[in-house]
Write a structure and sequence with these properties.
The protein is built from seven helices and six strands, in the order E-E-H-H-H-E-H-E-H-E-H-E-H. The chain is of the alpha/beta class. The protein has two domains: about 5-45 and about 95-205, Ribosomal Protein L4, Chain: A (3-Layer(aba) Sandwich), CATH 3.40.1370; about 45-95, no CATH class. The chain has a six-stranded mixed β-sheet with strand order 2-1-3-6-4-5. A hairpin with a 4-residue loop joins strand 1 (about 5-10) and strand 2. Helix 2 crosses helix 3 (about 105-120) and helix 4 packs across helix 5 (about 160-165). The longest helix is centred in the middle third of the chain and has 17 residues, at about 105-120.
Length: about 210
């Protein structure tokens, strides 16, 4: 079974924690991870982009000049796409970019990226987040420094208001609830910091 290092909120080493093989010892499947990440990015798009065609722009009802005997190319409207202030040809229009990914595929991808973080020793369990009485960017920065953490994702297990406020001013750091974990955020971060409660919740949900 894999093990992960446990730290106090001050950054001091506090032992190790044994992890579930079913979740944190999963072989990495790059195809599944790629599929889930692509779907995540596609589903994040609003799809509200829009352009006006020649039928949507104002003006252009009158023929600019007569058809023949002018020495110029024939034109039927000043709102043709080749004219300034004309419509847009083949421009984007509102659409839905949603991609469906099966639940089992998403869960497999999540287990893969978590297992990879554990194998690379980039996941740390920190106890004592509930002892933070008020937001403190300095305390969180000291923790990151003690753990030699780079771009960090902090995953908490409840509405940790003080933790969220402490993390948000640190460059490259992000804080999310365990209910919102996703493959993209985990891959986008170098280090993961979680609580023991988060480990228990992940093993409860994703070991099935």
């Amino acid at each position: 079974m894999p093990f992960v290092k446990v730290y106090e909120i001050t950054g001091e080493r506090a032992g190790e924690m044994e992890l579930s093989d079913a979740v944190f010892n999963t072989p990495v499947n790059m195809a599944v991870i790629h599929q889930v990440v692509v779907a995540h990015l596609a589903n994040s798009r609003q799809g509200t982009h829009s352009t006006k065609t020649r039928g949507d722009v104002s003006g252009g009802g009158k023929k600019p000049w007569r058809q023949k005997h002018t020495g110029r190319a024939r034109q039927g409207s000043t709102r043709s796409p080749i004219w300034v202030h004309g419509g847009v040809a083949h421009g984007p229009h509102p659409r839905d970019y949603h991609q469906k990914v099966n639940k089992k595929v998403r869960q497999l991808a999540l287990r893969c990226v978590l297992s990879d973080k554990v194998s690379e020793d980039l996941l740390a369990v920190v106890k004592g987040f509930d002892t933070i009485e008020k937001p403190s960017t300095k305390a969180m920065k000291n923790l990151f420094t003690a753990l030699d953490a780079g771009k960090t994702l902090v995953i908490y297990h409840d509405n940790a208001f003080n933790v969220t406020r402490s993390v948000r001013n640190l460059p490259g750091a992000k804080c999310i609830n365990v209910a919102s974990i996703n493959v993209y955020d985990i891959l986008n971060a170098k280090n993961l910091i979680v609580t023991p409660e988060v480990i228990a919740k992940i093993e409860e949900v994703y070991s099935k």
